[in-house]
């Protein structure tokens, strides 16, 4: 039986894909069949005249490249804005149901990992937020929070939004990027205290690539163990 998770963030650029590649690589290294989906991606660079989704490709490779990129990411947009806005600008039509269908198509294997686009309440399709896609899928949520000033506010607001949609939070990950910021700040401890949840911390790491994915998987080994299906 396949288990699944919806990977989202408190904002765009918080490190969702880095966390996703770490989880995918960690689960795949255990011999699990990991299926990844990023049903829509905007800001795709043109390669040979075609928009190529960089985040989706990283997830695909980290999971073991079992599936074609077309299945991992069905809708690709060039404009670096929300998918809803990019679709309107580029004349591409899809809705939340189409995104859900793209996530579930051929989604066998042991684990399904779906990454949203932007933050939990970012527009992902005409009339729909990532939150609506998450609710339609009904998967437990892995929430990624950037370790910076304001993290507690962003995390608690997002946790409330997740709870309002009746979704379970599988993990809360604090993602660190370079300088930790204010020396007096301890978002990991404060977030655990205010949320009442365990907080996994991903420290700054190297650029993306197979070795970086493996290193990050090792850093999040406890999280990967919790997310792995039980025999």
Tell me about this structure:
The longest helix has 14 residues. The termini are close together. The chain contains 10 helices and 12 strands. The strands form 4 sheets. A 6-stranded parallel β-sheet has the order 2-7-1-10-11-12, with helices on both faces. With 231 residues, the chain is of the alpha/beta class. 39% of the residues lie in helices and 21% in strands. It has one domain: Rossmann fold. Strand 11, helix 8 and strand 12 form a beta-alpha-beta unit. Helix 1 runs parallel beside helix 2, helix 1 crosses helix 9 and helix 7 runs parallel beside helix 8.
Order of helices and strands: EHEEEEHHEHHEEEHEHEHEHH
Which strands sit side by side, in order, in the main sheet? 2-7-1-10-11-12
Low-confidence stretches: none
CATH class: Alpha Beta
Give the CATH architecture. Answer: 3-Layer(aba) Sandwich
Strand content: 15-25%
Report the structural category. Answer: alpha/beta
CATH topology name:
Rossmann fold
- Work out the radius of gyration: 17 Å
* Form type: globular
Number of domains: 1
- Count of DSSP H/I helices: 10
Summarize the structure.
This protein has 231 residues and is α/β, with parallel strands linked by helices. Helices cover 39% and strands 21% of the residues. The chain has a six-stranded parallel β-sheet, with helices on both faces. The protein has a two-stranded parallel sheet with strand order 3-6. A two-stranded antiparallel sheet has the order 4-5.
């Amino acid at each position: 039986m396949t288990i699944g998770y919806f990977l989202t963030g408190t904002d765009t650029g918080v490190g969702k894909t880095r966390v996703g590649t770490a989880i995918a690589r960690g689960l795949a290294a255990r011999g699990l069949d990991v299926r990844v989906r990023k049903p829509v991606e905007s800001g795709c660079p043109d390669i040979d005249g075609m928009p190529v989704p960089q985040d989706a490709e990283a997830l695909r490779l980290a999971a073991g490249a079992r599936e074609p990129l077309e299945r991992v990411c069905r809708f690709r947009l060039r404009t670096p804005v929300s998918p809803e806005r990019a679709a309107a600008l580029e004349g591409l039509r899809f809705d939340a149901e189409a995104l859900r269908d793209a996530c579930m198509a051929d989604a066998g294997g042991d684990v399904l990992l779906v990454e949203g686009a932007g933050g939990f309440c970012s527009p992902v399709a005409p009339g729909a937020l990532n939150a609506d896609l998450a609710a339609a899928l009904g998967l437990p949520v892995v929430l990624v929070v950037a370790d910076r000033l304001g993290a507690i506010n962003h995390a608690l607001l997002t946790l409330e939004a997740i709870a309002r949609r009746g979704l379970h939070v599988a993990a809360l990950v604090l993602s660190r990027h370079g300088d930790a910021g204010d020396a007096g700040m301890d978002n990991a401890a404060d977030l655990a205290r205010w949320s009442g949840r365990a907080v996994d911390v991903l420290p700054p790491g190297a650029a993306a690539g197979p070795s970086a994915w493996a290193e990050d998987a090792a850093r999040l080994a406890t999280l990967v163990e919790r997310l792995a299906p039980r025999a």
